[in-house]
Amino acid sequence: MASKAVLSLSFISLAAAQAAVWGQCGGIGWTGPTTCASGTTCVRNNDYYSQCIPNANAGTTTTASRTTTTTTTTRTTTTTAAAVQTGWEEVIGEGSFNSFSSFWNYLYPWGSDHNGSARMKQDKVSTSGGVLTLRADRLSSQDGYSTANPKPAIWYWSGAVHAKATVVINDQFPNWEIRGEFKAPTSRGTWPAFWLTGTQSWPPEIDILEFKGDTTNWFNTFRSSSDVSTTKATVGNAASTWHQYRIWATKANANDVTVHFYVDGDWKGQHNAAGFVNKPMWIIINLQMEGSSGSPGPGGSTTYQAQKVYVGRSRTY
Ligand SMILES: *[C@@H]1O[C@H](CO)[C@@H](O)[C@H](O)[C@H]1NC(C)=O
Asked: Is residue 182 part of a domain?
């Protein structure tokens, strides 16, 4: 009996020392686990954040190894680094809503409240047949105030989700494609979004889909609160018909990222995301209400749907 108790105790401490899939496993200032659950690999996103990526997502196309040779008059040393997989890799595949909890979390990364009159609730999020549905319902009485600026009165309960994976554009991952198909509400007071925002600071922010109560999609890149690039695209039947909203982001130089924006494969514009290199970002899909989209919003229910959301990146080492 005594040896059995010791055995199970050692199992517990072993499990506690490993980060779960998508969990943080390293970075400056990190004091938690630095090894990953089986079937996952600790991948460095940047100096501050490494996370456990499923092996299946960790790159498949080519295998490269780097060789460094140092020659002096007296000796030659050859060092071959461990083989690494490079090439294009999928971070979130088009079927992610079929295994929601492997790829997505409920709410915003910081909780339930943000800049409009909707408070997010898990039960306003549903998935069926690979489609994510967020539903906003008008409340019969006010539910206090948002805890986030500008602290509007809460008049809706609605849905938000954020990806477990984060986006960081750097030497290791210099190219990213992020896209999805959406049916986005366009009536006054509805404020759907598919967007990226900094995990450690604001900015960076890149809005891939943002309708503010009409049929104009706002592609925005926030370099600061007053330094913003916007490309507008009219999508007349955005609410009733699936349309694809897409960005392609490339590391342009040591500090800056170039972002290209597309609707249904048509290029709409490009922004200089100055200073976005090595700034990790959350991926968020949310149905906010009122705020910048006008008020009053709808008296009944509003839905916002997403499918075939895809995130992929190139890996150079
Ligand atoms: C409000 O949130 C949306 C995403 O829902 C974001 O695109 C926008 O930049 C935010 N606006 C302000 C003024 O905070």
From this structure: yes
Pick the residue whose CA is nearest to atom 1 on ligand 1: 115
The model's pLDDT over 206-221, given as tens digits with 9 standing for 90+, comes to 999 999 999 999 999 9
- How many domains is the chain partitioned into structurally? 2
193 CB near ligand 1 (under 6 Å) = yes
Residue 70 lies in a domain: no
pTM score of the predicted model: 0.77
Residue type, 76: T
The answer, yes or no, to whether any atom of ligand 1 lies below 6 A from the CB of 177, is: no
Digit-coded pLDDT (tens) for 149-178: 999 999 999 999 999 999 999 999 999 999
Q: Are 165 and 22 in contact (CB under 8 A)?
A: yes
Compute the distance from residue 115 Cα to the ligand 1 centre, in Å: 6
State the Cα torsion 175-179-185-186 to the nearest 10°. Answer: 50
- Cβ(97) to ligand 1 under 6 A? no
